[in-house]
From TrEMBL:
It comes from the Bacteria. Pfam families: LysM, Peptidase_M48. Keywords: Hydrolase, Metal-binding, Metalloprotease, Protease, Signal, Zinc. This is Metalloprotease. PROSITE patterns: LYSM, PROKAR_LIPOPROTEIN. It comes from Blastomonas marina. The keyword Isomerase does not apply. Residues 447-494 form the LysM domain. InterPro entries: LysM (IPR018392), LysM_dom_sf (IPR036779), Mito/Outer_Membr_Metalloprot (IPR051156), Peptidase_M48 (IPR001915). GO terms for molecular function: metallopeptidase activity. Residues 1-24 form the signal peptide. Its cofactor is Zn(2+).
């Protein structure tokens, strides 16, 4: 999360434009009726104008563009695969951007704008997988999936469905759920309005077709989906297994494992045996930033630390933290929340009430009182409001802190009525950090390591710059089994400082 004050991202942008690649039933259904061999329609002037308008806003929402050799490489591969779409001047018709985000994701918006995050790129094993993911997104644009989805939404009068669905899932349609859903969307950088399953499979087929035309191994789409499924499973395990895993409705790619076999079957339709260009890929991602960007703060073993803002806090036991460009999301079985900031005029009580006032357009939400306190020497204020929802009553809490630099930050949390205290330990953990502690927050990077004689999977994994799950992280990052035999001269990915 940045040092500057947050600006609300409109739900309309999210609902109408962001094309999150989430497999599953889809919110709107339909799709799957596009002839993958047909020449795609030219990108309309209207779509280009729409994409150009929202492109800078998406860059701000997703940590900005990741530039340098890695960014130029992703753009080059993306434009090359876009040329296989059959669209006239396809190479130049698409804008391909590598995003400075630690979320595993890729998506597209109308106008030929295609995005992938550096975190997802780091998970890939070769250039064919990168081309497959970008080709999948190009396929969404070529098949005009976003436009067809928008039209379907308008016919069914369900524009703005994301907030309503999340509100229903978590808070029973209180209006408060819509606000928290938007916050979670911003904080986690999650894309919640999915394509239909038919459209996802359609884009997978187009991705395989483009791989074939470009001379890549068509199985790459299946292998990258398999790696993503393994990463999702590991993330759930590291977040506390079962109960505290990221809920499916808030996942960027729910259940990619379900598409692996279908992607493999699609690849078998071609004369499989194209290139993977693994060495070229590894050379171009060597040194790429991995995980959280310290300029946006980092999450480390359940603690959020921001070296520029000089603050830190810890999640309650059994909860997970997901860092984003605009907020930090807090999730668990017994509550949800976010940590963020808003404009501050020096009156902490008014600040708390203003956050409550912005929670719902459907009902007035205000705490019965605002209490003042001090947390580890930091002036603070908080209030709790009981809110009636379709699923009963919930407690919304705003807990705000005043820092000496003239900024205020706050938690917004929601629990079932009477259970607001589950977050008390987190509120009380807020503290200032010293200059030396801030200086110790270092960025991680992808490091390409050449295996030496005598190295084993476990000995190399011990080089990973983590205090836990070193072996598991290494195996998923490299698509390896624990009993894999590595030979001297092989190249593998490490995460180091």
């Amino acid at each position: 999360m940045p040092k500057t004050a947050l600006k609300t991202t409109t739900a309309a942008i999210t609902c109408l434009l962001l094309s999150g690649c989430a497999a599953g039933a889809g919110l709107l259904g339909g799709g799957g009726d596009y002839d993958i061999n047909q020449v795609p329609e030219p990108i309309s002037a209207e779509d280009r104008a729409q994409g150009a308008e929202y492109h800078p806003k998406l860059l701000a929402e997703f940590g900005g563009e990741y530039t340098g050799p890695g960014g130029a490489y992703v753009e080059r591969v993306g434009k090359n695969i876009a040329a296989q779409s059959g669209l006239a001047n396809g190479r130049d018709a698409y804008t391909v951007t590598l995003l400075n985000s630690s979320i595993n994701n890729a998506f597209a918006i109308p106008g030929g704008y295609v995005y992938t995050t550096r975190q997802l790129v780091a998970l890939m094993d070769n250039e064919a997988e990168l081309a497959g993911v970008l080709g999948h997104e190009v396929g969404h644009v070529a098949a005009r999936h976003a436009e067809r989805r928008q039209a379907e939404a308008q016919r069914n009068s369900i524009l703005g469905t994301v907030g309503a669905i999340l509100s229903s899932v978590f808070l029973g349609g209180s209006g408060l759920g819509d606000t928290l859903a938007r916050g979670l969307l911003q904080g986690s950088q999650l894309l919640t309005l999915s394509y239909s399953r038919g459209q996802e499979l359609e884009a997978d087929k187009l991705g395989a077709l483009y791989l074939n035309r470009a001379g890549y191994d068509e199985r790459a789409m299946a292998t990258v989906l398999s790696s993503l499924a393994a990463q999702n499973a590991l993330d759930a395990r590291m977040m506390g297994r079962g109960e505290t895993r990221v809920p499916e409705w808030a996942s960027t790619h729910p259940d990619p494992a379900s598409r692996v076999q279908e992607a493999l079957a699609e690849a078998q339709k071609y004369d499989v045996g194209g290139i993977t260009a693994r060495d070229q890929f590894l050379t171009n991602i060597d040194g790429m930033l991995y995980g959280d960007d310290p300029r946006q703060g980092i999450v480390e073993n359940g603690t959020f630390i921001h070296p520029d803002l000089k603050l830190a806090f810890r999640a309650p036991q059994g909860f997970y933290l997901v860092n984003g460009t605009r907020a930090v999301s807090i999730g668990g079985q017994s509550g949800q929340g976010q940590f963020t900031m808003a404009p501050y005029n020096g009156d902490l009580d008014r600040y708390v009430r203003s956050v409550f006032a912005g929670l719902s357009d459907q009902q007035q939400i205000q705490p019965s009182s605002v209490q003042r306190t001090t947390v580890n020497g930091i002036p603070a204020a908080y209030g709790v409001a009981r809110v009636n929802t379709g699923n009963g009553q919930v407690d919304a809490t705003v807990f705000a802190y005043e820092f000496s630099n003239g900024q205020a930050f706050h938690f917004l949390t929601v629990t079932q009525a009477g259970n607001a205290g589950v977050f008390n330990s987190m509120y009380e953990s807020m503290r200032r950090i010293s200059d030396s502690e801030a200086a110790n927050v270092r960025p991680r990077k992808v490091d390409i390591y050449t295996v030496r004689s005598g190295d084993t999977v476990r000995s190399i994994a011990s080089r990973m710059s983590y205090s836990n799950y070193q072996l598991e992280r290494f195996l998923v990052l490299n698509d390896l089994e624990a009993n894999a035999n590595l030979r001297a001269g092989d190249k593998v990915k490490l995460v180091t400082y």
